[in-house]
Amino acid sequence: MYRFLSITLLLFSSLTYAQKKPINHTVYDNWESVGAKQLSNNGIWAAYSVLKQEGDGTLYLNNLLSNTRLNVSRGTNLQFSTDSKYAALVVKPMFKDVRESKIKKKKPDELTKDSLCLVNLTNQAIDKVPRVKSYKMPEKGASLVAYLLEKPIDTSKKAKPDAPESKTKQEGTDLVLKNLPTGTTRTFKYVSDYSFNKTGKQLVFACTGSKKDKLAEEGVFLLNTEKGSVKTLVKGKGNFKNFIFNEEGEYLVFLGERSPEKKEIKDFNIYYNSPSLDTAQILVDNEVTGMPAKWAVSGDGKLGFSKDGNKLYFGIAPVKKPKDTTLVDFENAKLDIWGYKDDYLQPMQLKNMENELKRSYLTVMEIFNSNPKIVPLADIKLPEVMPVAEGNANFALAFTDYGNRIQSQWTGSSIRDYYLVDTKTGSRKKIISDLSGYAIASPAGKYVLYFDKKTANWYTYNVLTAKITHLNNGLNIKFVNEENDVPEDPSPYGLAAWTAEDKAVLIYDRYDIWEFSPEGKNEPKNITNGFGRQNKITFRYEKLDSESRFLNKKETIWLNAFNNTTKESGFYKKEIDNAKNPELVVMEKMRYSGMVKAKDAERFIFDKGSFSNSPNVYVSADMKNQLKLSNTNPQQQDYNWGTAELVKWTTPKGFNAEGILYKPENFDPTKKYPMIAYFYEKLSDGLYTYQSPAPTPSRLNITYFVSNGYLVFTPDISYEKGYPGRSAEEFINSGVEALKKNSWVDGTKIGIQGQSWGGYQVAHLITRTNMYAAAWAGAPVVNMTSAYGGMRWESGMNRQFQYEKTQSRIGATLWEKPELYIENSPLFKLPNVTTPVVIMSNDADGAVPWYQGIEMFTGLRRLGKPAWLLNYNNEAHNLMQRQNRKDIQIREQQFFDHYLKGAKAPVWMVNGIPATEKGKTWGFELTDEKP
After folding, report:
1. How far apart (Å, rounded) are the C-alpha atoms in residues 899 and 783?
2. Are the C-beta atoms of 82 and 41 separated by less than 8 Å?
3. N or C: which end of the chain has fewer CB within 10 A?
4. DSSP state of 331
5. Considering the entire predicted model, what is its pTM?
6. pLDDT tens string 683-702
7. In 3-state terms, what secondary structure has residue 302?
């Protein structure tokens, strides 16, 4: 009977798998993912969105007490009122309408616009407002909402198109202020910008007036939302923006200019208002004491009060030169001149030109000083300045790489000098020289904490005494990446937090969290007791209060935990001053992400999932008892999914290696399966990561191939400096050979796929072995000798740093070690290739020069090797346009199916696509002919 039952269950299980469909390329658009998540302040309402890859998502509002739910199709950008009684959110246009508008090439004014939904959470009534540009709610206090409407639709049949508006002067639209409890509204005409103070008691807005309405007021106005009174701050024409209130919400500053409309370079001033002033006064103009010659207030700079409201921080910049309108365009040369003394190469200068033209330099003013003056804190040689202690400190922390920028061409970064800048006088004191690393001020401003990559050590600088303390002196624990395998100095694991009044700083090692006295008075203490290292669990502080600046020594904190051996994740709790081990809360074969806490309640919202379980949204009061709110991708149960398991092996040189093996859900150990190896650095930590079936940027679509009867193997790779190619052989080939020992792996039908750095390794491997039946290389480098001097056009950086210091791992210049560049360049070994290969190399690749793919393809073509090159026109390093992502999935499937499953080949592989047929046919049809 037991034997019969076992056979019956096995038969039932086989039938169940047989009924499940393999994933096809039509399923992608409707596959779901979890979007933004948040809780109301009182923790009663949970909001989250479920998005589709292409189409309309849904925003859900769950009442966690009554277990009721509101669904808002296409909802996004939700905000709860401070009292948790209301919510506001944006409703986007329907996907099909947007698509139709693109097809019809409608003008911007003809497009369907966003709507605003206002939700009464008490009775769940929804008020929908069409055609809304933006909305804002106070950060604290009153339940108010202000929203700016789109320009009204002109329905008159004889309506003439409006004259194009000036780029600097666009007519405003209606601003509506609504009191959510009472439902009363108030409308202000022709508003271009607006802002609440934190409590919502003040609403400032700028009005542009109207050419059609001569009676419309122009200027800046301040509404007292409690009294309903409106104060005119500035009357008349102008461009006013960047409204900023102080912490208490009583003082206001903003940028404004009233230059003639046709003037190219506008003269910005900073306006100021307080309760005692009837109108806004110009606080800072270009004639203010302290303004450097030929400098002015920047219209692109940010404004900000210090926390105590005594200082105002803002930006100034050199006065720009207007265009010379007398020059005749076609009579003047157009060229870029590259100079060897330039700080940055011309491509980087051109890439950053817009930002540089808008660059401003931090300046400060003591608002209540009887002798008003400004104090520039930054200048062209010292451009980066950070206020300290929320701006309250009498100094700022500044840094510069001036004089050290050229070397970034081959290092990828530059060394910096750090200064303390006096906010009263602007005087500077250098505190750190030639730092390769970074430095930050402590929250209370008593110390500057810095990490030196050259020595791999942490230090503090005492602002008052100038004493430098080596924090980790004498500890035999590394605070830098223990697995670093690039020729660059290793990076630190990072900073967790400070305790109150800068009494202690918490710093990470690979697994644990250490407490250091910034003065070195107390011995360093491992607050997680070494429990992390003992158990190979990495602990990281989970900051749940975005406003907190310190930790209390008696505080119990949440720790994000990751088990490096099993790849499980979860959470522990730890009282900072308690000597006990961290307390386990939950660890699962899942991947947790996005933990958010309600501001005024002990309730959390988060999502979790695994390779087999679509991520879903949960809430919990203690992280032990979890309530599932969402149900994403129920259709997954209809498809043959897969499993993910950790595999381990020993490489020929004796290294312990690991990777992930993905198997089809209906895996049958009596059958033989084709296998594809996909690789990029280390991937095994993602054992429990959900892999949505999706058209990818060009990496392997793991879920699709597993569902369609492939094994997929993702080996981790560790590197030996100077030998990235050999390292790939050491780990990838040995991992594949280890798996081939299983009877269910068809060793004659193994493919490899990689993108970018993985694409390089694909190219290398097929020149060194014939063990692979098919290969797919995305954006590969095949000639390191030419790529070394090439450009990363997306950033404007030269590629030398990549070989000398980072991922390409040569660790020397082309002139120092030419033999390593040649050994690691597949181009020179192309005659050895027997594996059919597809190369993706796009003409707008901003990371790898696309001629690298051309070198590989033309070399293989010259040698008569089976090779194809895909150039997605005007596409990036990783495919960005969804139609191209969909296209490559089909081609990749057809390619591997032909060589690994014996399927028919598509026309594009057999006959190619002539240029005369481009855009008319795509060659997906299958044929009996051979490539």
Report:
1. 27
2. yes
3. N
4. G
5. 0.94
6. 999 999 999 999 999 899 99
7. coil
